[in-house]
Amino acid sequence: SKMAAHDFSTAYRALLATMHKFKYDARTLDEFSFWLSSFDDSRADSQIEVPGQYTGARRPHIGEHAKIVGFDSTVVVLVSMRKPKRIVIRGSDEREAFWLAKSGDDLRGDERVEQVFRAMNQLMARDPESRKRNLGIVTYRVIPMGLQVGLLEWVNGTATLNGILDSQP
Fold first, then answer.
1. What separation in angstroms does the CA of 55 have from each of 62, 71, 73, 114, 119?
2. Which is higher by pLDDT, 58 or 119?
3. Phi then psi for 26, rounded to 5 degrees?
């Protein structure tokens, strides 16, 4: 908060430049999952909702939820310890949803933190001073699918903390 605007801008640009240096490894989906690569949404037993449509703020209207119609054939593997994979899910609403499939971590704590952040955003939205200053926390969806696997909503323009630290001289 005590940093001058010019100094902040310089530091921010340097951080962005560092983030853009990270390399990703693109692979084909069938290298990781034959089931996903051969997914057929026309089968009745294949009607799966696009993740992230439940907010908890209201009763879900399941009939209105987009269903998965397919997956992009390219998977982006991030260069990090657990090698998480970015997948693209195509929905019946003609949108593409980008998700990071992660294994080896229990994401339930991450999900709870994001829920707290969304609650804080609701509180700040009710406060006139916070609204005037346009205060808010950027959140993303976390979907634990088991104790060691889950999905994270992909946020463009981000990099791993380890990647940023490793790139520093």
1. 12, 23, 29, 12, 12
2. 119
3. -90, 130
